[in-house]
Write a structure and sequence with these properties.
This protein has helices at residues 2-24, 39-53, 68-92, 100-116, 118-135, 142-148, 150-166, 172-184; strands spanning 187-188, 193-194, 199-200, 207-208, 213-214, 219-220, 225-227, 248-249, 254-255, 260-262, 267-268, 273-274, 279-280, 289-290, 298-300, 313-315. The protein is an alpha/beta fold. It has a five-stranded parallel β-sheet with strand order 1-4-7-10-13. A five-stranded parallel β-sheet has the order 3-6-9-12-14. Helix 2 runs antiparallel to helix 3 and helix 7 (150-166) packs antiparallel against helix 8. The protein is globular, with a radius of gyration of 25 Å. The model has no long low-confidence stretch (mean pLDDT 91).
């Protein structure tokens, strides 16, 4: 009994210490403030949008063509309700002062503007899926690409988030793309501008920064980073956030695995190819192939027990 009492006393002491840290801090808490958008709610919005954009792929029932109107209409009603609520919460959480009704009305307006873009998003995603089929000889069907390819999953969510970003919806665009990041390992900022027929093959470890401009018919492989070279600051040492920090990739560029391209002034010209593991901080002309020189590889024979026989090392 004494041990339980001692544990409770220690727990109470630690709790009091944590509460003291929280209440004396001026940041990183939300006491008395409105609720934020929920992670699970955002995931449900993603799933509702995917069900609208790719009907029949993720539902238990068999959809006939004559059922599509009713099916999509029902999903749109649910999406309108859930997205309006989450945008309203996001707006109410900002420093700009909205009363409850103002946030609700503005949330509904932004939701409607987003829903109006869904036909356009579907057309672009259809081209992304076709680009994957044309760009990967391992792809057997459109069904396989839609269901299995992480690049298409990430691009679907990015294209939704990018519309919300353009509508100046707070928080939710980043929540969407971070959800995609967790699901796929592909990190695309919703502010990046990405053209048509974009394909990420394999995809794990791809990073695309906020101010990237990517043209049409671009293909990336896993591990590619399109990042910032440096972070300019003002006289007070504060980051300047309204500068182009990430590269521009023109049409018909291929960037192979683990290449790193940095800087807002860096431009990769159309029809260029950037090889694996290349590090670039300067622009590349159109129709240029950039590769590393062939590395020197060292080989050595070993015996089954791990001993190295004498005289068997050689270099290529």
């Amino acid at each position: 009994m004494a041990q339980i009492s001692s544990f409770q006393d220690e727990l109470n002491e630690i709790t009091s210490e944590i509460v003291d840290v929280l209440t004396t801090s001026e940041t990183m808490h939300r006491f008395g403030l409105s609720r934020l958008p929920g992670g699970m709610d955002v995931a449900e919005i993603v799933n509702a949008c995917k069900a609208i954009l790719f009907p029949g792929y993720r539902c238990d029932q068999i959809l006939d063509q004559q059922d599509v109107q009713e099916h999509v209409h029902g999903l749109m009603i649910r999406l309108n309700t859930s997205l309006t609520r989450q945008i309203t919460l996001a707006l109410a959480s900002q420093e700009v002062s909205y009363d409850k009704e103002q946030a609700r009305v503005l949330g509904q307006e932004k939701t409607l503007a987003f829903i109006q873009e869904l036909p356009h998003i579907r057309r672009i995603l259809s081209e992304d899926v076709e680009a994957a089929l044309m760009g990967d000889p391992a792809a057997q069907s459109l069904d396989e690409i839609i269901l299995c390819y992480p690049g298409i999953e990430a691009m679907t969510i990015y294209r939704l988030a990018h519309v919300l970003y353009g509508l100046q919806v707070p928080l939710i665009p980043r929540m969407l793309t971070e959800y995609a990041h967790m699901q796929t390992g592909i990190d695309i900022h919703p502010g990046a501008q990405i053209g048509r027929r974009f394909f990420i093959d394999h995809g794990t470890g791809v990073v695309i920064g906020e101010t990237c401009h990517i043209g049409n018919d671009v293909k990336l492989y896993q591990g590619v980073t399109l990042g910032a070279l440096s972070f300019p600051q003002n006289d007070r040492g504060e980051l300047l956030r309204d500068r182009k920090r990430h590269p521009t990739i023109d049409d018909h560029v291929v960037i192979y695995a683990n290449a790193t391209i940095l800087g807002g002034q860096t431009r990769i010209g159309h029809h260029a190819v950037v090889g694996s593991s290349v590090w670039l901080t300067r622009s590349v002309d159109p129709y240029t192939v950039v590769t590393l020189e062939k590395p020197s590889l060292r080989y050595k024979d070993i015996l089954p027990d791990g001993q190295v026989p004498r005289g068997t090392e050689y270099q290529i």
